[in-house]
Amino acid sequence: MSLRHVILLATFLLVLMPLQALAHAQLRGAEPGSGAILDAAPTEVILTFNEPIAPLQARLFGPDGRVQDAEARAQGPDLIITLPDGLAQGTHALSWRVVSDDGHPVGGTHVFSIGFETGAPQAAPEPVPWFAALARGALTLALVLGVGGMVWAALSHRPAPRPISWALWAVPPAALALMAAQAMDLTGAGAQTLADPAAWGLALTSPFALTAGLAVIAAALAATGRKPPVLAAWALAALSFAAAGHAARAEPVLLMAPLMFGHAAALIFWAGALPGLLAMLRAPDAAAQMARFSRLAVPMVAVLVLTGAALAWRQVETPAALLGTAYGWVLTAKLALVALVLALAARHRLVLTPQLAQGAPTARPAFARSLRLELVLMVAILALTAGFRVTPPPRALADLPETRAELHLHGRQAMADITLIPGRPGPNQVEILPLDADFRPLTPLEITLFFSRPAEGLEGIELRAERGADGIWRAGPVHLPPGGPLDVVADILITDFRKEMIGGEMALLP
Q1: pLDDT for residue 182 is more than 60
Q2: How far apart are alpha carbons 507 and 447 in whole angstroms?
Q3: Which residues contact 421 (CB under 8 A, 6 or more apart)?
Q4: pTM for the whole thing?
């Protein structure tokens, strides 16, 4: 099987793969709204996401501490949760969990009140999928070094070093660990869920089952050591990266999936060849083999850089997101390591390979040290790549609606509609719409707000607002601490001789 046949096979398999839009689902809205105070108990809660989802679980935590399972069904991007009858008055927390089309579970808590607010019941926090990230990282490392090492062994007509065989043997248990992690991640439970066949069934229907299956088949083909199966294994290993995950499943999938395939294929060849190159330094024809690898590596590096740049830009979309999001920080660290690897590769091609060909006595030990460093950096890059599993990409957050907490204050001479954006603990912008006693727009001379929480010893935070051209007064940002409801007082100077001080309680969104 030639490289041309491998490319044709990979293209055919990419066409057969499901190419629906697979992105990281994000909650965009809810009915009733988050933090709403309702006169009567609703019969259902509708959560709307930015893409179709499938329900995993829904639990309602009542103001009395009672926990009830709720029936949930999906209708396109809507999760419709039927609430139990006879809900008590007070604040309820609805803990939900869904799976997005890329196989990543998403969970959260929706808070609403019936009649009046009470202390929000504590729902279980959303677990961070560290085990899933570790399992994906282990499978990536074993697959890249194992299959990539066999690819270079087949192309160079040399036996693969023993660590390459160890990496291939590690692929099946790493794939099993990935499926176990996916089962735990989908259910939001710990290791005890692995005794439940239903949890394994969920994992087997996720896109990561295809990733694990392709990885195991690729390892089995590569272990034969024969060139045609090894080249087929290279294609299947690259396809395993394009089967699931944020980058490959972003829109337009018809472009992103092939880009991810090309990126993975180049990475597998480059990183997997490094152990073989280290062993080859002891051979008499080391200089010729290094020159051959250098010729093959140049187009691979070009593919790696170009596809990586396109994939990264699609995930981040704005330069500000590189330093403004957790995903951006991981990507920035990865790009820094890639730059170091590229510098080492340039030194190998331009300096060390010519020295090796000339028989310089220091060339072999210098080359060995440099290749070991390059291998360490490659492992670090693969580890950082697995870290993308624990944070959604900025593109998935870009379309989220702006959240708000609102309060209406009513006085005898003036009223005010106060809005906190985003209405959660932390920094908030404040908007005030002043009205007169007949609900008509009012233009006061000054508006000063005071936020306090006397029961917890939080003294008043004073904030002077400024009027905008649209008639809305704005202030902030103001940092509001977490806790119970805030006492809000608006001091409205209507004229030089009239003022109104009105207040009320405002609950922040969870």
Answers
A1: yes
A2: 21
A3: 402, 403, 404, 428, 429, 430, 431
A4: 0.63
